[in-house]
Design brief:
- The protein is mainly alpha-helical.
- The protein has helices at residues 15-36, 52-56, 63-77, 115-130, 132-144, 159-178, 180-190, 192-200, 204-211, 214-231, 255-279, 287-293.
- It is globular, with a radius of gyration of 22 Å.
- The two termini are 41 Å apart.
């Protein structure tokens, strides 16, 4: 998982530095999706209460939610979620074993967490699409063994492997989306007077217009498609791409699905986080303090 050392970073709000991090996160997300695509959909792991073993433990959530709870409990004790770019999917986590690091003040205090939305769109829309090839291959194998009907689809039993990768994908997407706060803070402190009137109104549409760069988004999606198409190929032992290895349904990942993930989910949700952050950027400030920002 990509991490930034805020104790050493001289300017964590540099837009160029933020851009570099977001570009590297693209690679992380694509590679994680490629790994998840090797397994069938396994929808049972996303249904709450579907595992008797968890109910016996008095846990009524889904298999994936249990995975997140167990992993994030350990990570919380290791103070992962004291970092300004980390956000858990689980609530009521334990306090860290170690004392918190003295991070420099980077973001304005806020409680914005988009993880419930990320978990929902990932399990409902993204997983079924990126696992389609593995699911169809599984069905063909089951039919050859005389298993037909509803039993032939979706479930290959790899619940642990699938959930392990799901957690990695979700954490990467979460970091990518919540970096919108860094973008908003960087743009706000560069030109507070452009934002303050729309924060006080409040005017979501005007704030979104200030942070939206259509050309940047276009180049992002173009770059993402190129990366996904390259990573979807098979490579020979000497490192050369095998010609047409990503054609005719044999690609390691659904390239259009990766682009859709960003275009329909990650980018819009990041904008929501950016605008929500700005709308709370003046919370608790007196009029005198607000005036000082534009002086």
């Amino acid at each position: 998982m990509l991490s930034q050392n805020f104790m050493l970073e001289k300017d964590p709000l540099s837009l160029e530095r933020i851009r570099q991090i977001l570009v590297r996160l693209e690679d992380t997300i694509i590679f994680d999706l490629i790994e998840r695509a090797q397994f069938a959909h396994n929808p049972r792991i996303y249904i709450r209460g579907s595992f008797e073993e968890l109910r016996d433990m008095e846990f009524d959530g889904s298999w994936l939610e249990w995975f997140l709870k167990e992993i994030e409990t350990f990570h919380a004790r290791a103070r992962r979620y004291t970092s300004p770019d980390e956000y858990p999917f689980t609530s009521n986590l334990p306090v860290p074993v170690l004392l918190p690091l003295a991070f420099p003040k980077i973001l304005y205090p806020n409680t914005i967490n988009a993880n419930p939305s990320i978990l929902s769109f990932y399990t409902r829309s993204i997983v079924p699409r990126i696992t389609r090839r593995a699911t169809l291959a599984l069905a063909a194998i089951k039919r050859s063994n005389g298993i037909i009907g509803d039993e032939e689809y979706e479930d290959d039993g790899n619940y642990g492997s699938a959930a392990t990768i799901d957690v990695e994908v979700l954490q990467a997407i979460s970091k990518r989306v919540h970096y919108g706060k860094f973008v908003s803070e960087s743009k706000f402190i560069a030109n507070p007077s452009a934002f303050i009137p729309h924060i006080l109104t409040p005017n979501r549409a005007a704030l979104e217009a200030l942070i939206t760069k259509p050309e940047v988004e276009r180049k992002l999606l173009q770059r993402l498609r190129k990366k996904a198409a390259i990573y979807a190929q098979e490579f020979s032992a000497d490192g050369d791409a095998i010609v047409n290895s990503h054609m005719n349904g044999s690609a390691k990942i659904d390239v259009d699905g990766v682009v859709e993930l960003y275009e329909s989910y990650i980018i819009p949700l990041t904008k929501e986080v950016e605008v929500d952050y700005l709308l709370h950027r003046l919370d608790g400030l007196s009029q005198e303090e607000i005036d000082a920002l534009t002086a």
